[in-house]
Specification:
Blueprint: E1 2-6, E2 9-17, E3 29-39, E4 45-56, E5 61-67, E6 75-76, E7 81-90, E8 94-105, E9 110-121
Antiparallel strand pairs: 1-2, 2-3, 3-7, 4-5, 4-6, 4-8, 8-9
């Protein structure tokens, strides 16, 4: 599990390679990832947008921006948690993802909350020593 805390918001991510949704012969590798966001702070925030930077094993980068997560813009009062699962396809057997969320706080401030970089590793990846 990968974890990062930004100004009272803890983001944990657990990736899981999905062999049943992958087709290595067709250069398709698929991961599900579960994100747990917990408000450890004292202010309520609403998750308004997300940004992902996805990088495959050959350095190809894709950036994804959008409203909320999985069709929702969850409000997180202090002590509350929101958990969701999404997915990511790559054309290589490994890569990584990182990003951030923008939370709109009740006082009107926009707070950027980091999503920790996490590894997308499949059993099809070839490890080598540099």
């Amino acid at each position: 599990m990968y974890e990062q805390i930004t100004e009272g918001f803890r983001v944990r991510v657990e990736p899981d390679f999905m062999d049943d949704r992958s087709s290595p012969g067709d250069d398709l590798y698929f991961w599900a990832y579960t994100v747990e966001i917990t408000n450890l702070g004292l202010r309520t925030g609403t998750l308004r947008t997300r940004y992902w930077r996805i990088c495959d094993a050959v350095g190809k980068v894709e950036e994804v921006r959008g409203a909320g997560v999985v069709g929702d813009e969850p409000e997180l009062p202090p002590g509350e948690q929101f958990v969701y699962t999404s997915g990511c396809p790559l054309s290589t057997p490994s890569g990584f993802m990182e990003g951030h969320y923008i939370f709109e706080m009740t006082d009107g401030e926009n707070l950027q909350v980091a999503i920790p970089a996490f590894s997308l590793d499949s059993p099809h990846a070839v490890n080598s020593v540099n």
